[in-house]
């Protein structure tokens, strides 16, 4: 039986000396050119994979930086909210304190010098003070007029 003939594909131009380059070992065979092409393909795939991995890495870092900035803004907003909540609570306590009519009367007497009708203001002075205490005109009128009369005068004048 005869063995089938193999066709030999050579990269050398036709008409050249067939055994000169093969004797020196320079002749390129089909297998070596195929190996070189597959090596180039493998290098291309490796480079593309590396570039894709770098792009994913940079996008992850950008996302992490963005998340960090957002978390700082959230913490800042939470601190502002807590400060406003504390201020609100203090104002609610103060409003509840001033809802008591006795507190309002006490504040009006102490800070504004108001007296009820029929009462007379008393001013204490120390022994070291040599000047005569001055009673304001407003306190004198408050003692002479009624409570509602004072409001009438405050809004509509004398």
Provide key terms for this protein.
158 residues; 66% helix; mainly alpha; single chain
In short:
By secondary structure, the chain is mainly alpha-helical. The protein has helices spanning 20-24, 30-98, 101-112, 137-144, 147-156. The protein is rod-shaped.
SSE topology:
Layout (H helix, E strand, L loop, with lengths): L19 H5 L5 H69 L2 H12 L24 H8 L2 H10 L2
Describe this structure in words.
The chain has 158 residues and is an all-alpha fold. The protein has a domain at 100-126 and 136-158. It has 5 helices and no strands. It has helices spanning 20-24, 30-98, 101-112, 137-144, 147-156. The longest helix has 69 residues, at 30-98. The N and C termini lie far apart (142 Å).
Rounded to the nearest angstrom, the distance between the terminal CA atoms is: 142 Å
H-E string? HHHHH
Helical proportion? 55-70%
| DSSP strand content | under 5%
Shape: rod-shaped
The profile of the biggest β sheet is: none
Radius of gyration: 51 Å
Number of strands: 0
Mean pLDDT: 78
The unreliable regions are none
Q: Find the structural class using helix and strand composition.
A: mainly alpha
Q: Count of helices?
A: 5
């Amino acid at each position: 039986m005869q063995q089938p003939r193999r066709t030999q594909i050579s990269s050398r131009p036709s008409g050249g000396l067939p055994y000169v380059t093969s004797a020196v070992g320079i002749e390129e065979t089909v297998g070596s050119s195929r190996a070189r092409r597959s090596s180039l393909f493998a290098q291309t795939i490796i480079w593309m994979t590396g570039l894709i991995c770098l792009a994913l890495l940079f996008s992850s870092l950008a996302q992490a930086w963005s998340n960090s900035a957002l978390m700082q803004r959230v913490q800042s907003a939470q601190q502002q909210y807590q400060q406003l909540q504390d201020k609100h609570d203090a104002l609610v306590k103060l409003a509840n304190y001033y809802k008591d009519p006795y507190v309002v009367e006490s504040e009006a007497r102490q800070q504004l010098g108001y007296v009820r009708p029929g009462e007379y203001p008393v001013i204490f002075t120390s022994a070291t003070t040599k000047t005569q205490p001055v009673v304001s005109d407003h306190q004198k009128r408050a003692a002479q007029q009624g409570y509602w009369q004072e409001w009438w005068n405050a809004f509509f004048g004398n």
